[in-house]
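Annotated sample (chain length 160).
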Amino acid sequence: MVEPPPPPTISEYENYNTFHLIGDEDQPRINEWTGQILATEVERLKSHEVSPVTVDVVDMNVLVKGKKTQINRIVFKTDMSFKEVTTVLISKSIPCEFKPGFQCVTIALYLRGHVMPMLFPYVYKTRLRKRAGKNNLKHWVFINRQFEEVEHSISNLITL
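Output written by the structure step:
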């Protein structure tokens, strides 16, 4: 039985440019670094009696829509539907010492009916190109293993 192809993704629309920010040679080092950041954040939240759940990231990239809108796109290793996300919290950014211009934030997603946040690290380049402006982390696309894409926009940044 042949499976049908996945539905078109936002990155396949012709008015978007996709930028994969991390090269293969840097991936193991970035994984180790972000793993340490995530573990520190989990321990910090546990000290405040919050028990977060971490979720694995398969891929992350930035889409540029038009001249300035940067959309942070993340593919997760989960079947959970991101339609249930009600709140997106972002930690303070941490500069990447070995990859200038890149930073890491920890993202906490709160889902409808759940008190435990889902946490994951997100590495991004602060400025893709001069005319595209700075990434304000306000536009997101979350994708699960079922290729279900859900867009979220943040009007007010709230830090973890």
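Annotation: Residues 4-18 have pLDDT under 50 and may be disordered.
Annotation: Helices lie at 27-47.
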